[in-house]
């Protein structure tokens, strides 16, 4: 659990710096996609950081999805 919290806080810090968000905004930016897809927040954070488990599909950014079809 402590590891999960650490990873989430690290992702929040990245979002805060990269997108100039406050702490609450950074958490919401991670939480909302997690709730929409009904997956654990840790999974969403792992995907946003590029860390993927073997049994998950790769996350393809929306502009690339349009090109691939």
Write a concise synopsis of the structure shown:
With 69 residues, this protein is mainly alpha-helical.
Describe the 3D structure.
The chain has 69 residues and is mainly alpha-helical. 70% of the residues lie in helices and 0% in strands. The protein has four helices and no strands. Helix 1 packs across helix 2 and helix 1 (2-19) crosses helix 3 (41-48). The protein is globular and about 40 Å long.
The average pLDDT value, as a whole number, equals: 77
Question: Under the CATH scheme, which class?
Answer: Mainly Alpha
Rg over CA atoms: 13 Å
CATH architecture label name: Orthogonal Bundle
Total beta strands: 0
Helix fraction bin: 55-70%
Return the CATH topology. Arc Repressor Mutant, subunit A
Distance between the termini: 39 Å
Low-confidence stretches: none
Features:
mainly alpha, Arc Repressor Mutant, subunit A, 4 helices, 0% strand
How would you summarize the topology of this molecule?
Elements: H1 2-19, H2 23-37, H3 41-48, H4 62-68
Helix pairs in contact: 1-2, 1-3, 2-3
């Amino acid at each position: 659990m402590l590891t999960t919290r650490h990873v989430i806080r690290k992702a929040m810090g990245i979002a805060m710096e990269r997108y100039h968000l406050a702490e609450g905004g950074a958490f919401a930016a991670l939480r909302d996609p997690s709730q929409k897809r009904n997956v654990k927040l840790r999974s969403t954070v792992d995907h946003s950081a590029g860390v993927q488990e073997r049994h998950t599909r790769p996350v393809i950014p929306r502009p690339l999805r349009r090109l691939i079809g």
